[in-house]
Amino acid sequence: MPDKDTIFRVFVAVVAGICGFAFFRWFYPCHLEAREQIQLLLFTPGCFVSYLEKPAWLAVYLADCLEQFFCWRNGGVLLMVLLLVAEWWLAARFLRRLVDFMHIELYALFLFAAEVIMLGQLTYPLSVVFSLSLALLGIELYMHIRTRVLSVLSGVLLVLLLYSTAGFGVYLFLLMLVLAESKQGKFRLAYWLFLAAESVVIPLGLKKLYALPGETMCLYPIESVYSLCPTVVWIVLVLGLCFVPRRRWYMSWKEQLGVWMLSFLFLYIGLGITTDFRRERLLALDKAYTDGRWSDVLRLSERLGADNRLASYYRTLALLRSGQLPDALLNYAYPAGAESFFLPWNLSDLPDRFSPGEVYYALKDWNMARYAVMRAQEKNRPDESIRLVKRLAEISRNEGDTLGLEKYQRIMERTLFYSSWAKEQTVLPDTLAGAEKNRLRDPSDFKLSLYRFVESDRRNKDAVDYLLCYCLVDRDLSTFAEVYRRWGVQFYPEIPRIYAEALLMQMLPEPKKGRRTKKTQPETFVIPEVWKKAYADYLSVKKYADKHLEALQVVYGKSYWYYYDLSEEGKR
Amino acid sequence: MMKCFCFYISWLSCLFFLFGACRPFAEEREADSLPPIYPDYCNVTIPPNIAPLNFLMRDDAEQVEVKLKGKKIEYTYISNNGKVQFPQTDWQEMLEREQGATIQVTVRALIGNEWVVYRPFKWEITYDTLDAYLLYNSISPDQLSDGGQWRERHIETFQERKLPGKYRFKEAKPYFSPGRYIAFATCSPDAGLSISSDDFWVLYGKNSSLYLFDKTQKELREVSDSLAGKMTRAYPVLSPDGKWLYYCEAPSFDPDSLNDWRFSLYRTAFNPRTGRCESPMDTLYEAKAKGHTVTYLSLSPDGHDLLYTLSSYGMSPDWQQEADLQRMILPGQEIDSLQVVNSDAFDGQPFWASDGRWFVFNSKRGDKLYGKPYFCYVDSAGVAHKPFLLPQRDPAWYDYMLRSMDSPILVTQPVDTGIFAVLEQQLNNENIKP
Lengths: 572, 434
What we know:
The complex is a heterodimer of chains A (572) and B (434).
Chain A: H1 4-27, H2 29-37, H3 45-52, H4 57-68, H5 73-98, H6 109-119, H7 126-143, H8 148-166, H9 169-183, H10 189-210, H11 214-219, H12 229-243, H13 253-274, H14 277-290, H15 294-304, H16 309-321, H17 350-353, H18 358-362, H19 366-380, H20 386-398, H21 402-412, H22 419-424, H23 446-456, H24 461-473, H25 477-488, H26 497-507, H27 529-542, H28 545-556, H29 560-565, H30 568-571
Helix pairs in contact in A: 1-2, 1-5, 2-14, 4-7, 5-6, 5-7, 6-12, 6-13, 7-8, 7-9, 8-9, 8-10, 9-10, 9-12, 14-15, 14-16, 15-16, 19-20, 20-21, 23-24, 24-25, 25-26
Chain B: H1 2-21, E1 27-30, E2 37-38, E3 44-46, E4 55-57, E5 63-69, E6 74-79, E7 83-84, H2 88-97, E8 102-111, E9 114-117, E10 121-125, E11 133-139, E12 149-154, E13 160-162, E14 181-185, E15 192-194, E16 202-204, E17 210-214, E18 219-222, E19 232-238, E20 244-250, E21 264-271, E22 276-277, E23 282-285, H3 287-290, E24 293-299, E25 305-311, E26 324-329, E27 334-336, E28 347-352, E29 358-363, E30 372-377, E31 388-389, H4 397-400, E32 404-411, H5 418-430
Parallel strand pairs in B: 1-9, 3-10
Antiparallel strand pairs in B: 2-4, 4-7, 5-6, 5-8, 8-9, 8-10, 11-12, 11-32, 12-13, 14-17, 15-16, 17-18, 19-20, 20-21, 21-22, 21-23, 24-25, 25-26, 26-27, 28-29, 29-30, 30-31
C-alpha cells in the first residue's frame, strides 16, 4: 500500500498531466504538429554523427526524436506530457532534498507551468526541456554520492558530460550543486570555482571544433532570451525556497491550495500572454488544406476573417482544388483584391516555412513550386523539414522525374513515419510534356509569370481559370478578355456565368464613362441572350444604386457587375 | 539431475545456433554486368592519396564480398549491410604499395539465395597525387542563399571542417588566383533570376564588369574600361605568367532573347606592371557561330589547357542538364570534348589541381539536382580518364544530401581564411559587390 506522500505526488502528477494534455490536445494541437513538420530526422549513422558535431547532442537528438511523434495527435501530446511530468518529478525530488518540507513538490508545478507556456511557442526548442531534465537527472545522481573524493571526481566528470549532452543545462546543474552542498554544510569554494571554470573553459575551448561563437557555445541549445524563462522560474523558485525561512515542516491545506491556485494562475496568465490562437487557426487551416478537406478550409478561412490574406489565399486555392472556380469565386469577399491569389516571396510568416509555393503546386507549375520549396529550405536552415522534402518528392513524382523521386524516397525511407508513404510513390506522366520551352518568368511578378506559364502550357485548365479569376478580382477586363479568347474558350462549351458577365462588361462598355477600352471583338464570344438581357436590366437599375444599394445587393450581390461597380472591394 | 538438465540445455543451444547460423546452400551465378555500385567507382583512375572509395550496392544485397587484387597485395572484405567501407589503414597501405599499378576489384553479392558474381572492374592508381584539401561551398541548389557555407575537406581522410565566417564570393576561386592579381567579375550570376519551363531556373547577371585586385599594392582596378564596348563580361582568369587574361563576354542581357544570350571566350594580352589590357582581344570561341555559351573557366598551372563549361545559353548554366565540360589545348586551340568525363546531367565549374594532372569539377549526375565534386585525371599523353566522386565514410551520404557542393577547389594546404579578409575589406571600402 503506497504511503500518503506517494499518493499525493501521483495525484499532483496526474492533475498536471491532465492539464498539459488538455491544453495541447484540444486547445493548441496544431502547434505541436507544426513542430514535427519543420524538422527532418533521418535514422542513419551520418545523421546521428551530425548531432555529435554540436553541443548538447543528446538533448537535441532526444528532442528531435520526440518531435517525430507529434504527427500523432494523441500519442505525441501524451509523450510530451510524460516528459514534462518526468521533469517535474526530478525537480520535485531535488526540492525535497534541498528543503526538508512536506508536499514541497507542489512548488515544482511552477516549472511545469513555465514549460507548458513556453512549448506553445514554435521558437522554443524542445531540447531545452531535455537540457533542464538532464541537469536535474545529473544532480539527482550526484546527490547519491556520499564519498568526498568520489563526489569531486564525479562532479568534474558530470560537468564535462552534461555540457556535451545537455549544453546550457550544465550551469543549472552547477547552481543546484552549490545550493545543495551549502545546504548540507559542505562549503567547498575552490571545488565550486573549479567546476565553474570548467563549465566555461569547455565550451570556449571547443568553439573552434564546433565552428560556433563563444556565447552560442555556452547557451546552446537556447536560441533566444525567452527560452530562458523556465530556467529563470526554476532558479527563482529554488533560491526562494532556500532562503525564505519557514516555521513549520509541513504545508497547511490553505498553503497547498494557495500554491495550486498560484501555479494555475501563473499558467493561465502565461498562456494568455504567449498563446497565439490566430496562428493556431492558421495552422489548422494549413492542415485542412494539406489533408484536402476543402469544406473545412472554407469554414476555417471564414473564421479568420476576410481581411486575412493568408486565409483568403488558402480559400482561393481550396476553391480551385475542389473545382469550384470560377462559379464560387464571388461567394466570398476580397478585401485584399487579387493579392488573395498569391503570397509575396518575402512573407516571413508561416507559409515560408510550412507550405511555400502552394499556388504553384496547385497549378502544376513544377519549376516555380520547386524553387519556392528550395527557397524555404534555405530559410529553414540549419534544420531540414520533412514537409519540404515530401513536397520535393511530390514535385519530382508529378513531373515524371524518376531520379529526383528516387533521391527523396531514399531520404524519406530513413524517417520514422514517412517510409511507407515514400515506398508507395511512383512517377506520374509529365504534365508539362509538350509545353513550350524557355518562357522566362520573373518570380516576383505573379501575374506576368502566370500569364507566361499559361502561354507555355495552354492545356492547363486550372492555370487558365486561376489567371482568369485573378484578372476578374483585379478588375483587369482587357487581360481577362484576351486570356479567355486565347486559352479559355477551348475549355467551356458553355460559358460560366461569371465569365459571361465580365465579357459583357468588356464587350458592351457603358457609353458615358468610356473607361473600358474595346479591344476584343464582340463576336468572338458566344454569350447566351439571357445574360445579355440580364446585363441590360442591371445597367438600367444601376443608376439607383445610391439610394437602393442594399436592394441591388440582394439581386446582384453575387454577380461580377456588382463586384466591379458597386462593392467595396471593387471600388477599392 | 541438475547436471543432466544443464547438459541437455547446452546441447540444445549448440544445435540451435548451429542450424540457425547455417543458411541453405546458396548457388553461385556469374552476371555479365558490372556491379550496381554507388558511387560509380567502376574502372576509374585514382590518386595514391585518396580516402577509401567506400560504396554501396543498389541491388538489395544481403551480403557483399569484395576482393581487391593488385600486384603486391590481395584483400577480401565482407559487408553484411550492403555497404562496403574499407579500413583506412589497409586502404592507405594498399595505395602506397600499388602506386602506378592496377587493382582488380571483384564483387560478389548475396541476393536472395544466390551469390551473384559481377564482372570485375579496375582501379588504376597513379603516381600523381591529388592536392590534399578540397574546398567547396555547401549551398542551396537554388544558389540564392546568402553565399552558402564554405567547407574544407581533407581528401586523404574523411575529416571536414566548416570555414568560419561568411564570404561574399559564392565561389572561392578568386581568392586562390595565382600570382600578383586576383581577377573577378563584379556581378555574381544571381543578379537576376527567372524560371523557365525546361530548365529549372535561369540565373543571369546584368552589366557584369571585370576587376583585378593587386595583392601587393592592395588595390582594386576595373579591367573592363580597357576593353572595347559595353558588354557583359564574366569569369576572368589570368594566365600563370600573368601575360594573358581569359574571359567570357556577351552582349547585355535581353530577357526577350534569353535563348540567344551566349558568352564567347576571349583572350587579351595583359601587362602585369600596368594592370591593363594592351592588345585587341583574341576570339577563342565564337558563341554566336557555334551556338553555345562558354562559362566557368579554369586554366591549368602551365597555362596549356583551358577547361570551361559549354551549354546552350546564359551565364550560369547550373540547371542546364546538357551543360558539359570541354578542354581547349591552347597553343593550337584544339578542342577535347571530354566524352569520358561528361554525363547527361550538368557538368561544370572545373578547377585544376596544382600539378596540372588532376582537375575537380561539379556534376549533378545521379539525381540531376545536387552538385557533387568529381575528380578527373589527365595523363601525360593528355588523355582524360573516367572521373570519380569524392568518397565519403558513409557511401549513402550523397543519398541524404540536400545541399549542393558547389564551386569545388583543390588546395595543397589547409586554408588560412585571413587572406580572404584583405580582399573582403577592400571590396567593402570600394563599395563593390562581387
